[in-house]
Amino acid sequence: MNIRRQSTLKAAVTTASVALHNGQHTNLVMRPAPIGSGLRFVRTDISDRDNVVPVRPDLVTGVRNCTTLSNAAGVGVSTIEHLLAALSAAGIDNLDLELDGAELPALDGSAEPFLKLIEQVGVYQQPAPRRYVKVLESIDVSSGDTWARIEPSDRLELDVTIDFEEEAIGHQRLEIVPDVRSFRERMASARTFARIHEVAALQAAGLSKGGSYDNAIVVDNDKILNPSGLRFEDEFVRHKALDLLGDLYLGGPILGRVTTFKSGHGLNHDLLMKLYGTPSAWKFTTMVMPETEADERSYLTSVSA
Question: Which of the residues 73, 135, 248, 296 could staple to 50 if both were Cys, CB 3.0 to 4.6 A apart?
Fold first, then answer.
C-alpha cells in the first residue's frame, strides 16, 4: 500500500524581488528540512532575538490585504499566502524558508514563480507518513454578507465565489480540486489585484509600496489598467482561490470541501481557527496515494529508498 509520505525539496533554491507592500527588495532561500519539522520561516536579517517563525494558524497576527505570521519575539513575515499555495499544491511538508526581510518577494504577484522553483529542483519524498486533517463536521463562519464553510470530503475541494461592483470583475465562481496539475494549469499564474480607489488608501496606510503593473492587476471600474491585460477572463476568482489555498495550508494538508462567498484572508483564517477549535470536527489521518496521482507527481518527485 502506497501511503502518502512527507516531502521536502531535493535541493535549496533561491529567488528575490521587491516586496508588494513594504517595497523593499527581499531574498528568499528555500532549504530542505528534516521529517516532522514542518514549514518554518527564518528571518536571516535578525540576530538579537528568536528569528524563527513556524507556519501555524495560531501565529497569524495580520489579515489586512495579506496574511502575516509573528512569533512570540515579535518577529513577523507577511504576504505568505502565494508561496503557501504553491507548497500546498506540490505537497511540501518540511522546509526552512530563509528570508532577509519582513515580507516575501512579490515576484509577478502570483504563485507561478514559486511553483517553477519547486519544479526546478524537484520534490523529495521522505520515509515518514504524511499527516492530514480530515474534516468530520461542517463548520461555518460569516461576517455581514460574506461567509465560508468547510464540510467533510475525502479530498480537498474549493468552491470560491466573488462579487464586486466593478464591471471588470463582477460575479465570478471557480470550483477546483487543487492538485498539482490543476493548480499549475488553472490557478498558479493568477495574479493579485487591486481596485484603483484602493491603491491610494493602501499606500497611505503604508501598504502596496512595491505594487506595480508587473506584480498586480489594477482595475478602474470596467477597465483593466495593465497594458498586458488579463491572463484569464476570470483571473480574479482564480487568485482568490489561490489565496484561500495558501491560507488553508497554515494548518497543513486538509481533506474537506471549502465553499466561500466574498471571503478574504480574515474570514479564511476565522474558518481555520473555528475548525481547529472544534475538536469533534476533525481528526488526523494518513492517505493512500492513487496510482494516477503517483504518475502525475513523478515528474517532480524523487522517492527515498
Answer: 73
Residue 243, domain CATH: 3.30.1700.10
C-alpha cell at 125: 519524498
Q: Is residue 162 part of a domain?
A: yes
Q: Across-strand partners of 141?
A: 148
Q: Please state the pTM of the whole predicted model.
A: 0.94
Confidence of residue 294 (pLDDT cuts 50, 70, 90): low
Domain annotation covers residue 73: yes
Write out the residue range of the structural domain in which residue 151 sits.
5-297
| Contact between 302 and 122 (Cβ < 8 Å) | yes
If we measure between CA atoms, which residue out of 135, 132, 139, 133 comes closest to residue 152?
Answer: 135
In a domain, 303, yes or no: no
Q: How many domains does the chain have?
A: 1
Alpha helices in 183-227 (DSSP H): 196-204
Give the containing element (helix H, strand E) for 263. none
In a domain, 302, yes or no: no
Ramachandran area for residue 50 (φ above 0: left; ψ -120 to 50: alpha; else beta) = beta
CA distance 112 to 119: 10
DSSP state of 269: H
Please tell me the distance from the alpha carbon of residue 146 to that of residue 156, in angstroms, as a whole number.
Answer: 21
pLDDT in tens, 121-140: 999 999 999 999 999 999 99
Helix 112-121, helix 81-90: angle, nearest 10:
40
Q: Are 169 and 158 in contact (CB under 8 A)?
A: no
Q: Which residues are catalytic?
A: 265
Q: Which three cell numbers stand for residue 74?
A: 515579535
What grid cell was written down for 15?
Answer: 529567488
> Which of 38, 34, 9, 31 has the alpha carbon at shortest distance from 99?
31
293: helix, strand or coil: helix
Answer yes or no: are the C-beta atoms of 33 and 8 closer than 8 Å: yes
With a cut of 60, say whether residue 55 has pLDDT above it: yes
Task: Report angle CA 228, 230, 235 to the nearest 5 degrees.
Answer: 155
CA-derived radius of gyration, the chain: 18
